[in-house]
Amino acid sequence: MDGTVFNIQRFAVHDGPGIRTTVFLKGCPLKCFWCHNPEGLRREPEIFFQSSKCIGCGWCFNACPQNCHRLENGVHLFRRENCRRCGRCAEKCYAEAIEIIGRTMTVPEVLAEVMKDKLFYANSGGGMTVSGGEPMLQFEFTRALLKAARRAGIHNCLDTCGFAPFDDYSQILEDVDLFLYDLKATDSDKHCALTGMPLAGILDNFFRLDKAGARIILRCPLIPSLNDDDEHLKNVAVIANKLCHVQEINLLPYHPLGRDKGQYLGCPDKGIEFECASESKIMHYLQVIGEHTEIPVRKA
């Protein structure tokens, strides 16, 4: 069973309880304007190119079979339109200016990485978190990985946007200890505008998972001027109050890291500048939601 992994982050402390190893899988059905992990959007491997790191060694100029890397007027240019993503150019890029994002791994290979920190999981109440992208897009691999971790005695979290067939969720319920469930917007029209996908199915899966007894942390990315208005904050509390198994509500304030990563992937710049929420604004988020629910609310 193979999957396409773009990162395995050890000692993660923001992706569920305790110290965790987060496995990031490629592919996502949503196209959020502010995406923090644009390298997780496409299922196939991609080329990460940071021209500022190039030391001009010339390896990639000769290695690329498509001549995608050229030196013109002293500037290293990367012609992505001809790139087949074979990865030859990255094999000996000692400066790490060129990297392949996404590698094929088997379940035992991923689990071997996860097991390296098993002692820390036991001492901190941590474990493995499967994230993305959207891990449900690689459902068979995700299911096999969760089952393997369960057999190894590892606590499992699944970080999901909720956009997948509920039948798939029902098949992994017994192997997921905690769902990290994202809610990007509570207004249907706004959700479509911001993510490119409808809200109805995501909410339906949310309620059905809760009815099935799944333990859930509701996670809310908040981007100033896009989805941080008081009405949305109140609606988050209203939705959470209708459910029985929401453990807490986590707020995820926007950070600009995704913008730089998008440029390194050659993604078109949307020309939108998002601001980072100030501490006073984050306190306001916590206050507004907290006034409308007894479920614990915190900044993740």
Task: Report on the architecture of this protein.
The protein contains 10 helices and 13 strands. It has 300 residues and is an alpha/beta fold. The protein folds into 2 domains: 233 residues, Alpha-Beta Barrel (TIM Barrel), CATH 3.20.20.70; 56 residues, Alpha-Beta Plaits (2-Layer Sandwich). The strands form 3 sheets. The chain has a 9-stranded mixed sheet with strand order 7-1-2-8-9-10-11-12-13. α2 packs across α4 and α8 packs across α10. The mean pLDDT is 94.
Question: Any key phrases for this structure?
Answer:
300 residues, alpha/beta, Alpha-Beta Plaits, 2 domains, nine-stranded mixed beta sheet, 13 strands
- Number of H/I helices: 10
The CA-CA distance between the termini, in Å, is 33 Å
The total number of structural domains is 2
- Cα gyration radius (Å): 20 Å
- Going by CATH, the architecture of the largest domain would be Alpha-Beta Barrel
Q: What is the molecular shape? A: globular
State the helicity in percent bands: 25-40%
User: Would you list the SSEs in sequence order as H and E?
Assistant: EEEHEEEEHHEHEHEHHEHEHHE
CATH superfamily heading of the largest domain: Aldolase class I
Low-confidence stretches: none
